What we know:
Blueprint lengths: L10 H14 L12 H8 L3 H13 L3 E4 L3 E4 L9 H8 L2 H25 L2 H18 L5 H17 L3 H15 L6 H4 L3 H19 L3 H42 L1
Antiparallel strand pairs: 1-2
Helix pairs in contact: 1-3, 2-3, 5-7, 5-10, 5-11, 6-7, 6-10, 7-8, 10-11
Amino acid sequence: MPFQKVQPEKLSQSVVRQIEQLILRGILRPGERLPSERELAEKLGVSRPSLREAVADLQSRGLLSSRAGAGIYVADVLGSAFSDALVKLFASHDEAVFDYISFRRDMEGLAAERAARLASDTDLKVVATVLEKMEAAHVKRNPADEARLDAEFHLAIIEASHNVVMLHMMRSMYQLLREGVFYNRQVMFKQRTTRQSLLDQHRAINDALQARDPKAARAAVEAHLDYVENALSDQLLADRHEAIARQRLDHEKARG
């Protein structure tokens, strides 16, 4: 017979499985600091030796890392998604920018469609709350907060789609975007008219999600990323024209 006696699970393994699930589901994020050992043991209802055993297991597998005198952190598990050589290659070729936007259009359109069908009411409240923060940041002259919240808005939709593979893959892609690998996001928010258009597009995405309309949600995401693609194409063209104009000006000055 294929049956075996059931073995009681060690407390440390229960802790390991709970922390694994929190990382997998994107609730604990890369770089996030865990509570102190005493506080975490109390929250989990286990002894500190059991907690230490669990933490050691997770550290040995690269999911947690310790920083001297600073505590235990969720490891930067996203950092290994792309090699340094590939990241540099992305950064040096314009075609990677447009392939990136095309990839986002496909993946985020699917995520929005899934979120409209599968998200809980609480998931949709998270999306709406991030949008409210974007609206508050929109009135500020400095666009940094609005640009940051733009990424949070899109990631909230991906979280609401409840696909953990998509979540971690897209978080990795957004980390490269934050680091300016594909393009400088601040450029998108410099013009007030562009900022207003982007905010209106995010409102349209949110409206479709709150109405639980999968087709409209996907269409709104695709329209938004079409706009981003066109804006970046115009910016790259303007930059090239400016570089040529400066060459002409320098040459004219040199001629005396």
